[in-house]
Amino acid sequence: GRFHSVNTGPALVALARARDCGFDVDAAALDAGSKVLLAMRDGAGTYTYTYPEPISFRKPDASIARGPVCEESLCRLGANSKDDLKMAIDRFMEYRGDLRLPVKLDESWGHPHNFSSYFYFFAYAHAASAIAFHAESAADKLRLLQSDLLRVVELDGTWVDFEMVGKPYGTAMALY
Questions:
Q1: In whole angstroms, what is the distance from residue 176 CA to residue 165 CA?
Q2: Is there a contact between 67 and 17 (Cβ–Cβ < 8 Å)?
Q3: Would you give the DSSP letter of residue 4?
Q4: Mind listing the pLDDT tens digit for each residue in 5-63?
Q5: Are the C-beta atoms of 95 and 64 separated by less than 8 Å?
Q6: Which helix H or strand E contains 27, and what residues bound it?
Q7: Cis peptide before 54 (omega within 30 of 0)
């Protein structure tokens, strides 16, 4: 079996939020999830895409789409610090423009930063969650993300990043 940071981070955020809202969430599952996510980690905000093998796309620039959500999940579970989360958010904010480069052009990971076009809205949605959770300068950062999204709206008022899943996905994620 392989684990994916792109799925593990968001799943742990959802489970931690459910726990924090009073739902019964298996503590052993949260512990196991945080341990495997920590094993995927190569420093704050830097994660392999898959684990235990192949170890892939484990560089800071290749992790900007996954880093904030993975750090948010670990922070919510007490397995890292808000400083680690801040580093992932800051890296996302600095390099987020690169996420747009493969959009509507390439569905593979052939881009120099090794992210696919479908990471665009995924990354923005999860970075927004991490920013709101971290709370430092959240309003200013969220306004920047909103501005970015409004600049890439299609002529018909929809959004798209990955052609295969099309406008319904892109629009839902942009509005989310």
A1: 16
A2: no
A3: E
A4: 999 999 999 999 999 999 999 999 999 999 999 999 999 999 998 999 988 888 888 89
A5: yes
A6: helix 27-40
A7: yes
Q: Please tell me the distance from the alpha carbon of residue 127 to that of residue 174, in angstroms, as a whole number.
A: 12
Distances in Å between the Cα of 161 and the Cα atoms of 54, 110, 152, 169 are: 26, 16, 10, 9
CA atoms within 13 A on the CB side of 174: 21
* Angstrom distance (rounded) from CA 164 to CA 167: 9
Q: Which residue has the tokens 């799925």?
A: 7
User: At residue 15, what is the residue type?
Assistant: L
User: d(Cα 54, Cα 159) in Å, to the nearest integer?
Assistant: 33
DSSP string covering 37-89, please? HHHHBSSTT-B-SEESSS--S-STGGGTTTHHHHHHHHHHTTSS-HHHHHHHH
Paired tokens of 7: 């799925």
Nearest one of 94, 99, 74 to 84, comparing CA atoms: 74
